[in-house]
Design brief:
With 375 residues, the chain is α/β, with parallel strands linked by helices. It contains seven helices and 17 strands. α1 (19-30) packs parallel to α2 and α3 (82-98) runs antiparallel to α4. The longest helix is centred in the first third of the chain and has 20 residues, at 105-124. The protein is globular, with a radius of gyration of 22 Å. It starts with 9 loop residues before the first strand and ends in a 6-residue tail after the last strand.
Length: 375
């Protein structure tokens, strides 16, 4: 069954200033819960305003959240978690790229900020649950344990970025939008019916703390420019770059290679070596990954024992692929793909599913390919 309660809960609604979190807070209040809204001030420079759908955590957003809370009729506060966000999300993001990995800051934010720092503070203040506008569903089983499942509408499902939550965190999580089959237009229409001014506000996208969308420029400011070689699979130099951190596994565009491959086909980033500051490129077929090892697994419930068959999702807006997975004695997760996949990079998260249920997630450490190139 989906998450229900026989009594009103004290709920802390995380309100970003967007339409989803505003409607989620309104639904929680309408359900009879004692709701308090909170906007997380995560930007060290909140004076800057978003540009269209880019960026977040600005003064504009906090004001939008406050106005929504006023309309809903709930108390509202702004909590400053900028330093924690910088340490756990932004600094981690930069360090991962510097090490040649491709991180997902949204997962890190959910793990470290929304369902660690925020949840811990909420529980300390006597709240029962944290409510967010994510599209996912918490299910209470017959024995009282909690499971995380995909949203009813797969087109909006956000369970991938919540795969870092454990059962204790799920016990205090509320996702009012997850079990309704509504389009985004219908959510906006509901917001308008409720008198919420954010009804027509564009969704934020890309990385929230890089408002202009220029990830490479953001990293260059923090890591500096470091010229290095772009080489092919044989080690022959085919170009140069201004920082290996500016590339991701599977990248095709922006390589700035002066001459085509001998076969005339496009080349893709196959490997990034931060030690030698070298980027290796090659044919698309060399990206086929047959297996991987992942570290730091987090389980949305009891950890699985022995090998099992699951589906896996490798990026927030990616599809599912069939895998076999086994937790090894050293707490590493060994995953083999039924059909090879491409664009898999160390640092990414792999999330395992059993049907619609989220089993857990882990961070990709190494990959195995059909060819000799190994990330």
């Amino acid at each position: 069954m989906t998450q229900t309660s026989q009594r009103p809960l004290r709920v802390l609604a995380a309100m970003s200033g967007g339409v989803d979190s505003a409607v989620a807070a309104a639904r929680a209040a309408e359900a009879g819960h004692d709701v308090t809204g909170v906007h997380l001030a995560l930007s060290a420079n909140p004076q800057s305003f978003r540009t269209g759908a880019r960026g977040c955590c600005t003064i504009e957003d906090s004001r939008d959240a406050r106005r929504a809370a006023d309309v809903i009729g709930i108390p509202f506060y702004v909590w400053d978690l900028a330093e924690r966000f910088r340490e756990d999300v932004v600094d981690d993001f930069v360090a991962e790229y510097e090490a040649g990995r491709t991180p997902n800051p949204c997962l890190r934010c959910n793990e470290k900020i929304k369902f660690a720092a925020l949840l811990d503070k909420a529980l300390a203040l006597g709240f029962d649950a944290v409510c967010t506008g994510h599209y996912a569903t918490v299910v209470v089983t017959e024995n009282g344990s909690r499971e995380l499942h995909r949203a009813s509408d797969m087109a909006k499902d956000q369970s991938y970025v919540l795969g870092v939550l454990d059962e204790k965190q799920l016990a205090h999580a509320m996702f009012p939008l997850g079990d309704t089959l509504t389009t985004k237009d219908e959510i906006r229409a509901e917001a308008e019916r409720r008198g919420l001014a954010v009804a027509k506000k564009p969704d934020s996208h890309d990385i929230c703390f890089i408002a202009d969308g220029d990830t490479q420029g953001f990293l260059a400011q923090r890591l500096g420019r470091a010229e290095g070689d772009i080489v092919d699979e044989s080690g022959a130099r085919v170009g140069t770059h201004e920082g290996a951190y500016g590339f991701t596994i599977g990248q095709r565009k922006g390589l700035r290679i002066g001459h085509p491959a001998p076969d005339g086909k496009p080349r893709y980033v196959l490997d990034i070596s931060p030690v030698s500051n070298t980027v290796t490129v090659g044919p698309v077929e060399a990206l086929d990954v047959t297996a991987l090892t992942a570290i730091r697994p987090r389980w949305c419930g009891t950890a699985p024992t022995g090998p099992g068959t699951y589906t896996a999702q490798l990026r927030a807006h990616g599809g599912e692929t069939e895998v076999t997975a086994e937790l090894l004695p050293d707490a590493e997760l060994r995953v083999s793909f039924t059909t090879p996949v491409r664009g898999v990079a160390p640092g990414q998260a792999i999330v395992l599913y059993d049907g619609t249920r989220v089993v857990g997630s882990a961070t990709i450490a190494t990959t195995e390919r059909r060819t000799t190139v190994t990330a």
